[in-house]
Design brief:
eleven-stranded antiparallel beta sheet; 11 strands; 193 residues; 1 helix; mainly beta
Length: 193
């Protein structure tokens, strides 16, 4: 995941010099309701190795995003409120269900008309879980992604998130585990006048 983030940052730096103008003008604000699916994964480690033997949990992703278009032709800033069902499934065991309200704060780099590479920060708040209180109520991650806005305003958005905070409450334990996730959504951008 760290390599993917570095590649995304380098691609943004290389491509923004040749970027085309955005579909929306400077100072414009859009609102985008979105719906799709999320995929949660487990990342864990002991002081002596890593943990394997789990599968992703697929769930619902729904929310809305506001995007502000700067005076720079290739840069916009966005903030969203998203409900995402994350977690994972232990092989031959139960599914860990972790549902979050996430607030992704993104910088969007338009490398071609309608096509943006995204990177940002994302605080998340646990609103539902089936882990008997073993999970922390706050998660902080680094989201990266890409999106494409069609001429009619329909937008496809693909994001992945790398969690920086442990999800477990057992800070004294040599076991550390994290919940990473991603989403694929479709939305529609409305311009605010």
């Amino acid at each position: 995941m760290k390599k993917m983030m570095m590649i995304a940052v380098m691609a943004v730096m290389c491509l923004t010099a040749n970027a085309q103008k955005m579909r929306h003008g400077a100072g414009q604000i859009t609102i985008q309701p979105m719906i799709g699916f999320s995929v949660g994964t487990f990342r864990g480690e002991y002081t002596s190795g890593t943990i394997t033997g789990n599968e992703a949990r697929v769930g619902l992703a729904i929310g809305a995003e506001a995007e502000y278009y700067t005076t720079t032709d290739w840069l916009s800033l966005s903030a969203a409120l998203k409900y995402e069902q994350l977690g994972w499934e232990w092989k031959n065991a139960n599914t860990v269900k972790l549902d979050y309200i996430d607030i992704p704060l993104m910088a969007n780099f338009y490398v071609a008309k309608g096509f943006a590479l995204k990177v940002g920060l994302q605080p998340g708040f646990l609103v539902n879980d089936n882990a008997n209180g073993e999970c922390k109520s706050f998660n902080f991650s680094i989201p990266v992604g890409l999106s494409y806005e069609f001429k009619n305003g329909i937008t496809l958005d693909l994001r992945g998130g790398y969690s920086l905070t442990r999800v477990d409450k057992f800070d004294g334990n040599d076991l550390k585990y994290y919940t990473d996730g991603g989403s694929l959504t479709i939305g529609y951008k409305f311009e605010l006048k």
